[in-house]
């Protein structure tokens, strides 16, 4: 199971979380990765943890002030990028363009989507993975795997129907090992989570508990 911790812009210490994630990763069969803010990518990658960007733009080198260039993200140490997160929505053409930019820079890709129908459309664009996240459950601590298990199963079916080899993750409200196991039982190959670790009093303990039952 991929356990991807999105630090969003939470006021946590990204290096402390990344260091804990790298150390916990060595104790588990799960694959733990961290997605910090762009300005923290390099320092997070230096901890040795698998590092992801939260976003890249559909651009090349050139006159693109304020954008995130996939090559620069890669040079900073990221091995993958989220795209179209619920808090960083893109138009369809921009998702496609950002996927192209990420491929050009050899970044792995996860396209987020709100529901199974969007998952089908996102999977058809050929990312490495898609992540289904009902926006209303994000940050609530109520796991999608419990509140809306059909969404996860339907997303797995929608991705398979797209005919591409695309893994499915689920996210929103995931904060315990039980939630991760439930996600796996619904067909997800990973989880995308944030507040359960980034806002925890002890992020290392939260991570250990997340992967303990795997
Ligand atoms: O990227 C992570 C998701 O938006 C889930 O956030 P959450 O774990 O705080 O619900």
UniProtKB/TrEMBL annotation:
Name the source organism.
Natronoglomus mannanivorans
Which UniProt keywords are listed? Cytoplasm, Gluconeogenesis, Glycolysis, Isomerase
What are the binding positions for substrate in this chain? 6-8, 138, 173, 194-195
Single GO MF descriptor: triose-phosphate isomerase activity
Catalytic residue list:
85, 133
Q: What is annotated about its quaternary structure and interactions?
A: Homotetramer; dimer of dimers.
Q: What is its EC number?
A: 5.3.1.1
- This chain is encoded by the gene named tpiA
Q: Can you tell me which family this protein belongs to?
A: Belongs to the triosephosphate isomerase family.
Pathway it acts in? Carbohydrate biosynthesis; gluconeogenesis; Carbohydrate degradation; glycolysis; D-glyceraldehyde 3-phosphate from glycerone phosphate: step 1/1
Q: What's the catalysed reaction?
A: D-glyceraldehyde 3-phosphate = dihydroxyacetone phosphate
- Subcellular localization(s) per the UniProt record: Cytoplasm
> What broad class describes the main subcellular location of this protein?
cytoplasm
Q: Name one Pfam family in it.
A: TIM
Q: What class of enzyme is it?
A: isomerase
The role this protein plays is:
Involved in the gluconeogenesis. Catalyzes stereospecifically the conversion of dihydroxyacetone phosphate (DHAP) to D-glyceraldehyde-3-phosphate (G3P).
Report if keyword Oxidoreductase is assigned: no
Q: What SUPFAM superfamilies does the annotation carry?
A: Triosephosphate isomerase (TIM)
Spell out the protein name for this chain: Triosephosphate isomerase
């Amino acid at each position: 199971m991929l356990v991807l911790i999105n630090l969003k812009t939470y006021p946590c210490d990204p290096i402390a979380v990344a260091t804990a994630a790298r150390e916990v990763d060595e104790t588990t069969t799960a694959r733990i990765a961290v997605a910090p803010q762009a300005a923290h990518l390099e320092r997070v990658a230096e901890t040795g943890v698998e590092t992801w960007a939260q976003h890249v733009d559909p651009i090349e080198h050139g006159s693109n002030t304020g954008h995130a260039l996939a090559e620069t993200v890669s040079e900073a140490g990221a091995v993958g990028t989220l795209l179209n997160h619920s808090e960083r929505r893109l138009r369809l053409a921009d998702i496609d363009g950002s996927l192209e930019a990420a491929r050009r820079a050899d970044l792995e890709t996860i396209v987020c989507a709100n529901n199974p129908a969007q998952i089908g459309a996102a999977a058809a664009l050929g990312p490495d993975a898609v992540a289904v996240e009902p926006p209303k459950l994000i940050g609530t601590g109520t796991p999608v795997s419990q509140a809306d298990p059909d969404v996860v199963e339907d997303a797995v079916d929608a991705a398979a129907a797209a005919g591409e080899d695309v893994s499915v993750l689920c996210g929103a409200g995931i904060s315990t090992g039980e939630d991760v196991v439930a996600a796996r039982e619904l067909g997800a190959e990973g989880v995308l989570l944030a507040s359960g670790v980034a806002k925890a009093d002890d992020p290392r303990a939260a991570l250990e508990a997340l992967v303990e039952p795997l």
